[in-house]
Amino acid sequence: MKISNLKVSEYEEMKKLFLDVFSNEPWYDKWENEQLDLYLKDLIDNNNSLSLVFHDENNKLIGASLGYVFNWWQGKEYFIKEFFISREVQNQGVGSSFLAQINEVLTAKEIKHIWLATERTVPAFHFYQKNGFSEMEDSAFLLKKV
């Protein structure tokens, strides 16, 4: 399995995988095509975007990490906005392998931290904890409806 930067030619395949993962349990998102394209373009078309994909041994796209690189007083940080693995290979160590390879890429780019947000009530929460992520005790992720 190998990691690479998302190529323009892989966009539709990545989008299809995103829909398959997040339209099913536990998320049940109800994306409309136009809104999804706007959202994904927001993630991948910025100067500070870092969009990584993961392929299996047959070069099939099986995962993606879409996020941004920011400069901070401690150095560069990567904020993962979306991380997803094909439902066909979840719970087989693929996501952990992908994260390990992401770590190698980030180390080479001298990126010091990875940030992400998830819900405590979904399996992803325990997956991230198992892979070395920890909750920030004195930080909060806040939302205000407008």
Descriptive notes:
The protein is of the alpha+beta class and 146 residues long. The chain has a single domain, classed as Gcn5-related N-acetyltransferase (GNAT) (Aminopeptidase). The protein is 32% helix and 27% strand. The protein has 4 helices and 5 strands. Strands 1-2-3-4-5 form a 5-stranded mixed β-sheet. The longest helix is centred in the last third of the chain and has 15 residues, at 94-108. The relative contact order is 0.15. The mean pLDDT is 95.
Secondary structure blueprint with pairings:
Elements: E1 2-5, H1 11-22, H2 33-44, E2 49-55, E3 61-72, E4 75-85, H3 94-108, E5 111-116, H4 123-130
Parallel strand pairs: 4-5
Antiparallel strand pairs: 1-2, 2-3, 3-4
Question: Which features would summarize this protein structure in a list?
Answer:
146 residues; alpha+beta; Aminopeptidase; five-stranded mixed sheet; 4 helices; GNAT_dom; acyltransferase activity, transferring groups other than amino-acyl groups
Number of domains: 1
Q: Count the strands?
A: 5
Low-confidence stretches: none
Oligomer: single chain
**Name of the level-1 CATH class:** Alpha Beta
CATH homologous superfamily (4th level) name: Gcn5-related N-acetyltransferase (GNAT)
* Main sheet characteristics: 5 strands, mixed
Which radius of gyration do the C-alpha atoms yield?
15 Å
Question: Strand-and-helix sequence, N→C?
Answer: EHHEEEHEH
Task: Say what the CATH topology is.
Answer: Aminopeptidase
Strand content: 25-35%
| Overall outline | globular
If helices are DSSP runs of H or I spanning 4 or more residues, what is the number of helices?
Answer: 4
- The CATH architecture is 3-Layer(aba) Sandwich
Cα distance, first to last residue? 43 Å
What topology, given as strand order, has the largest sheet?
A: 1-2-3-4-5
Helix content: 25-40%
Report the mean per-residue pLDDT as an integer.
95
- Structural class by secondary-structure content: alpha+beta
